[in-house]
Amino acid sequence: MNTTRDLLKIGLVANLFEWYEFGIYGYLAGIVGQIFFSPGDSISSLIQGFAVFAIGYLARLLGSIFFGFAGDWAGRGRALKISLIMMAAPTVLIGFLPTYNTVGVLAPVLLLVLRLVQGFAMGGELPLNGCYVFEASPAHHRSVLCSMVMVSIALGMLLASLVANLLFWYFDRETIVQWAWRLPFLLSIPLTFFIIAMRRAIHDFPVPSTKLEGRSIATSCAVLKKPMLTAVSIMSFATVFGFVLTIWLPSYLNHFLNYPPRLAQLTNTLTLIALVVFKLASGYMAHRLGYQRLVKIGLIMTILFIFPLWFRLQTLSFSHALMTQLLMALLAGSVSGILMEILASQFPSSGRSLGMNLAYTLPTVLLGSTSPLILTLMINKTGLLLFPAFYILFFGLLALPGALSLSAKSPEFPAGRL
Fold it and tell me: Which residues cross the membrane (predicted)?
């Protein structure tokens, strides 16, 4: 049986590794593009780096389907342990890869192969974690414990941002390109041992007797279709907003608004610290107000204020940029902090693992991983610096009907297994 301490450990730590790697690649995308592809200007290198970022995530969909069925058939805990181990090796190996100057076109090929393997394993990790914590938690702690799963994303990103900050503060760009870029990836070695030790806290429990055993993927998806539409629409908004704010914004400030890399990364680090607080607060508020009410408030406020906030970024002031990012983190955190509870609550226990995996992974693959590339290309082509605000607004409006339709009753709330 899991104790509350175990669930806190699983919720906070299990995803930290994934999002550290995810964040460090995003923050170093320009460097990665420069050293793994043929020489070009800084924008071309950034686009190439984000292209591999996006392509690597296409494997997440296959991994999500695999681990979704595995979670419903074999047990949430067993599937979660497998996904944690599978994604560890590629991150470490990226730090040892030869560059384009050494092996030519083989360099981007090797990078892409590792990203595909890693993407497959990552397809099940976070939604499986959320499903596990949701079902193992007692009702009176569920909202807060589920928020811990999302807090772990911010913590992983924060660790990545801190490491990137140190990299840019202590090394010049030439040194980073020559060898220092490897250091953040090699830091994954001790993180891997930490994750392996944490796996001991994951105890499996029986899969519901009405599991999706014997059903085809098409039949299972048909059963989950109605709740899937609501879950995917809300997840799409949270994914786009989160990726833009925490992954892509430092590149935007640096390459399009000409902020020094150190200042762009510093505002991002401070924003991630605030995001941890806002996500925790959203879990507490969801327990008090209900996640249904909180997601509606967060969506409506984002729709109303995203343009004024993005316009404020254009003032080219460090203090304005920081304050604007903190306000956006408040809006994003009010929804993303309760995502696992929202997703888990939409699906019956018999198909919850598959439902959560698909609802989480589809927007992540199709929208999240491609957003940095799309936004960079569109601004480079059109010169419209406010385009990201249009992008976020569109997905906010798309999610609003689903959020407004959420009811207080959700299918098959478990009583908790503590």
Answer: 12-37, 43-67, 103-123, 144-171, 183-202, 229-251, 263-282, 294-311, 323-344, 356-379, 385-408
